[in-house]
Write a structure and sequence with these properties.
Structural class: alpha+beta
Strand order of the largest sheet: 31-32-34-33-35-36-37-38
Strand content: 25-35%
Oligomer: single chain
Number of strands: 38
Helix content: 10-25%
Length: 674
């Protein structure tokens, strides 16, 4: 068997050895130099912004996070925590004298409180499981949070006759749960997530909810602090209908739980208005489609009257926050690859405040971001673009200013790819499709360049004009990189996303090929050096592409689905996939499943195709990769399989795995350059 590691080592040398001495483009090891901001909190007067500052630690090969503050007037940065661990989820107390957060500094995730006037820090919990959804009570005396509670479990079989001190095989693992493993978490233990409270000065926890249901998400107190609103799926069939969550009110003194919403569909993010009169939340009516627009609702807590504030917005609402005067809400949503922030009054027209909320993804150029709002409507938000990861920005009276420049030391002297937006009409039906082209540093349109088509996952997701180490590293090697949002992507409305409902892959292939053709027509692409890659849903489309065209010199299929039948029967979230991505269960619709499966077209493949997947991936299990690899071997197609040890579906969670992914893809493309 031929080992690839020495060759990849050579690729790594070309990335960060000789190249680093002769140019100032981004190199593989520069991944460890990058930082980004997220998880924003802000004082009511807008003077101080708290945020999580994330960086990559080269010794532990992991992301580490600390909490910092920045003045909105002087831009002075100040650390609130430090150390090689994770500090996250900062939450200001109602009187703004304390900051609660979660930290792994002592080896497990615990709740800490920092007194902002004195700088004192105390660990107030001693939990056996990781907390989440940290929320202050209105009087600042307590914190509520969610935590997993293991359930008792015992094997139904016990073996007799084991002598004392004998070394027998590890006992068999008995599984009868619907959800028995989770991507990124491995095989799960029995139990449920419940709500707890703890004194803000420390002490024992008090469990607030019981029952065989998961409770969590956004937590919000009533104005008087006597009730707590939360989201949960407490229906009898919740295991097989995982999206049907409702809002509930928990009376803290009596532990009585009252159901607030009642419809088929997910209701979440409950937020009581500052005046206590309204409950805002997000959700949609479930119609068993691949996508519906998430809407913003408000409910009058006295009358029960409920209305959608965004029924005329053909986009999905993401984060929401009440205005301090309770007259409206701020919310973010993705539109055409960018994350927007809007203000929506309880009655009247919405106003877009900025379209520049920056991505907090690390790796590929996905959209998203965070924001916070002061009592006067000033906004702190993550700001990013194609040249920089997320910083903190401040919006006041319509003017935006940078408060941080976290990556100037790492990137100011680097020659980065310039990224250009393009719009095209699909060759299939003329549908308008958006994309972006990253040009290699020193680009000269009179020369010819290799082209890498990089395809996003999801499939209902979106790329945008955001910083991407992967795209920048490919461009630094002299490639033009094309990434697009083909039909089925979100941020273009419901109809655009639903074009692939029970129809994926299909004409998204034509959209992508239209993009390739458009760049070739510009005259600077070497047609003998066309390459294609993508991960997850992008891996599906890459495998589909090589089964439908031979135009690419090489392909790398990352963490794909190859066979929809085996995927639905092995993926972690299989009840959802069977219900929403297909017309029914596999055995009732075998022809439909196989028509959309790349494995059905493996007999057409001639393109040299490498596969790359994490060995601990339970979303698109590595058995999918193995199927395609072995099928390609049987077909005599030039192929290879790269297995990333201990990596889940989020391969690039560890920085060195991002480096590995890019290096292997570039090596494969270099190997097959004519």
């Amino acid at each position: 068997m031929k080992l690839l590691s020495p060759l990849v080592l050579l690729a790594t040398v070309s990335f960060c050895g000789v190249a680093a001495q002769t140019d100032n483009t981004l190199q593989l090891e520069n991944v460890f130099d990058l930082e980004y901001a997220n998880q924003i909190e802000m004082t009511a007067d807008g003077d101080v912004v708290y945020f999580v500052r994330n960086r990559m630690d080269i010794k532990s090969d992991r992301k580490v996070s600390n909490i910092w503050s920045v003045s909105s007037s002087s831009k002075q940065l100040q650390p609130l925590t430090s150390g090689v661990h994770m500090d996250y989820s900062p939450v200001l107390s109602p009187d703004e004298t304390r900051l609660a957060f979660i930290s792994t500094r002592d080896g497990s995730s615990q709740i800490y409180v920092k007194w902002l006037n004195t700088g004192a820090v105390a660990k107030i919990s001693n939990l056996t499981q990781s907390p989440g959804n940290l929320t202050w009570s209105p009087n600042g005396e307590k914190l509520v949070f969610s935590q997993f509670v293991p359930a008792a479990s015992a094997s139904p079989v016990s073996l007799p006759g084991k002598p004392k001190g004998a070394d027998w095989a590890e006992p068999a693992k008995y599984i009868d749960d619907v959800y028995y493993r989770a991507d990124g978490g491995g095989y799960t233990e029995k139990g449920f997530r419940h709500l707890f409270e703890i004194s803000a000065t420390g002490g024992n926890t008090n469990q607030l909810t019981t029952g065989d249901f998961d409770h969590g998400g956004t937590l919000s107190f009533s104005e008087d602090g006597k009730s707590l609103y939360f989201s949960a799926n407490r229906h009898a069939n919740y295991l097989l209908k995982p999206t049907n969550s409702e809002l509930y009110k928990l009376q803290l003194q009596s532990s009585e739980i009252t159901q607030i919403t009642d419809r088929v569909g997910p209701d979440g993010q409950p937020q009581v208005s500052p005046n206590g009169h309204y409950l805002a939340y997000t959700g949609y009516d479930d119609k068993k489609t691949n996508y519906e627009n998430t809407q913003l609702y408000i409910r009058n807590l006295k009358t029960g009257e409920t209305q959608s504030l965004t029924s005329d917005l053909d986009r999905s609402v993401e984060q929401i926050k009440w205005a301090d005067d309770s007259k409206g809400l701020y919310y973010s949503y993705d539109s055409e690859g960018q994350t927007m922030l809007a203000y929506q009054p309880r009655s009247g027209k919405r106003k877009v405040l900025t379209k520049d909320i920056g991505s907090v993804a690390f790796g590929r150029p996905y959209s998203g971001g965070d924001f916070a709002v002061s009592e006067d409507g000033e906004v702190a938000f993550t700001l990013a673009n194609t040249q920089r990861p997320a910083d903190i920005a401040f919006l006041k009276r319509g003017k935006t200013q940078h408060l941080t420049k976290l990556n100037e030391d790492a990137l100011a002297n680097k020659s980065l790819a310039k990224v250009e937006e393009i719009w095209l009409k699909s060759s299939h039906d003329g549908l308008a499709v958006q994309g972006w082209v990253a040009y290699p540093p020193g680009f000269d349109k009179s020369k010819k360049y290799p082209l890498i088509l990089e395809i996003h996952g999801g499939p209902v997701a979106n790329y945008g004009p955001h910083f991407s180490p992967e795209v920048q590293l490919f461009a630094a090697k002299g490639n033009v990189v094309l990434y697009m949002n083909p039909r089925g992507s979100d941020s273009y409305g419901k109809e655009f996303a639903q074009t692939i409902h029970h129809n994926y892959p299909s004409n998204d292939f034509d959209d992508l090929m239209t993009g390739v053709d458009a760049l070739i027509a510009k005259g600077f692409i070497d047609e003998s050096k066309l390459f294609v890659t993508g991960g997850s849903g992008g891996g599906v489309l890459t495998a589909w592409i090589v089964g439908h065209t031979d135009r690419f010199a090489a392909a790398v299929v990352a963490k794909p689905v190859i066979n929809w039948i085996s995927f639905v029967l092995t993926a972690d979230y299989y009840p959802f996939f069977a219900d929403y991505w297909f017309p029914g269960k596999p055995w009732d619709h075998i022809e439909h499943y196989m028509k959309r499966s790349p494995i059905s077209y493996v007999g057409n493949v001639k393109t040299p195709t490498m596969l790359l997947t994490g060995e601990a991936d339970y979303r698109t299990p590595i058995s999918e990769t193995e199927q395609f690899y072995q099928a390609l071997k049987l077909q005599g197609v030039d192929t290879a399989m790269v297995r990333i040890p201990d990596a889940s579906h989020g391969i690039t969670k560890r920085p060195s795995n991002l480096m590995t992914k890019v290096a292997y893809i570039q090596w494969w493309f270099d190997k097959h350059s004519k």
